[in-house]
Amino acid sequence: MIELKIEGATCNGCVKSIEKALTQVKGVEGVSFSLETKLAQITGNADKEALTEAVEMAGFDVIES
Ligand code: 9UX
Asked: Taking CB atoms and a 6 Å cutoff, what residues make up the pocket around ligand 1?
C-alpha cells in the first residue's frame, strides 16, 4: 500500500476529487482518502510520482509521500 499526505482538501467534494484523480492512475486498485488524517491510502501497483502528479493536477498538494 502507498500512503500520501495531501494538503488542501476541506470538504467531501475535495475527497471525491482526490479519490477520482488517484483512481485514474495506472495500476491503482483501491483508494481511500481521509479528510481528518489527510492521508490517502492507495492499493495496487502504481508509481508514486504518477500518483503525486495526479493529485497536483487536481489542485491539491502532496506534502509527504
Ligand atoms: Mo467543496 Mo472542496 O465545494 O474544494 S470541493 S471545498
From this structure: 10-11, 13-14
* Consecutive H or E run containing 53: helix 48-57
Model pTM score = 0.95
The whole-angstrom separation of Cα 54 and Cα 56 is: 5
Q: Which residue owns the Cα nearest ligand 1 atom 5?
A: 13
CB 16 within 8 A of CB 59: no
Q: The domain 2-64 is classified under which CATH number: 3.40.1350.10, 3.30.300.30, 3.40.50.720, 3.30.70.100?
A: 3.30.70.100
Q: What is the ipTM of this complex?
A: 0.84
Ligand 1 centroid, distance to 41 Cα (angstroms)? 20
Domain ranges of the chain: 2-64
